[in-house]
Write a structure and sequence with these properties.
By secondary structure, the chain is an alpha+beta fold. It has 3 domains: 133 residues, Heat Shock Protein 90 (2-Layer Sandwich); 118 residues; 86 residues, Heat Shock Protein 90, CATH 3.30.565.10. Helices cover 50% and strands 19% of the residues. The chain contains 11 helices and 10 strands. The chain is elongated. It starts with a strand and ends in a 36-residue tail after the last strand.
Length: 380
Amino acid sequence: MINLDRILIKDESSIVEARNKIRLLAEDLKFNSIAVTRLVTITSELSRLIYQKDEESSIVVGFDKKEDAFGLLLLFQSKKEKLNIGKAEVFFDKLRVAQTEDGFCEVEAFKYIPDTQFQPTDEFIQIEKERLVRLSSTELINEVKRKNEELMKLLDELKERAEKEKELVAITATAEAEKIKATESNRIKSEFLANMSHELRTPLNSIIGFSEILLERTFGDLNEKQTKYASNILTSGKHLLTLINDILNLSKVEAGKIELKIEDFSLQEMLTECQTLVKSLAGKKNIWIEVKIEGISTIKADPVRFKQIMYNLLSNAIKFTHEGGRIDIQAKPVNEMVQISVQDTGIGIAREHYEKVFEEFKQIDSSYAKQYQGTGLGFP
């Protein structure tokens, strides 16, 4: 067994501590939300069963390997003579109840990790140990605020670098040598940003997750000021994630790291699926979306990228269309190809701005107090 932490069960607060430590560990191990909820619930029930006043009861949290696959192992230890394991027997993959020589009743609960290829590296084990040991409500707030500030600074630096690269290309366009240098510099920048996907998204997802935990009051009540800060962190974190995804997706395209997987698929089914994806967004503004296809059944394209393009076009149309508006999706054959158009009843684009909307990081309304948020990467 690989031991990560030992939690002493001495009062209700220690049971809450056990719940939240196991919740965070289970989420890191990619258990789905239903499994996480059941795991936390059963942990609470067993923690209350093993608790005895003035006696040593504990939960040992760690990993173990059974039948060539790793799983989460929880070892419940108590001085009680017998424990009623209840629902735990149905949920866990392996369960063992035993009486130790030193008088402890021991329940060993094992649940396979969803990723069958999971291998707990020394680095992963060390990180999880440190997180579990230092976990507390106050530290979570401070950690979330610190990471949020770091990501804000990093995003500003990335935007600034992207703008400088564009200026460099424009200034040196007349000199071929400088143009090559700028192109290479842009490629390196794009590769760097594309490779930063994990490093950026992982801490940001932690920020969002920690903020949600705080707002759920799982560590206890927050005062009005703490609730306001946690809500601001959650809102900012989700907005940052959207912006970073836009920048990273563009960088992957520029770095040549996106490969197209061409296949035949039903255009009607795909457009209906895209319509469903944005249904909730459109519903909030009471916007009607209609799909019309003329004489086309299947097309040959990359379905993932096709869906991404359509989502960008539709979400953009919804963003700039007023309450009660309409969006029409039309597809028709043109010169042995398919022409797909998205037309809305929104604010529109002036003719002199047609070219600008296809420039990276460019928005028609770029003022500080602009009404519509975004990075300006949807069309490019």
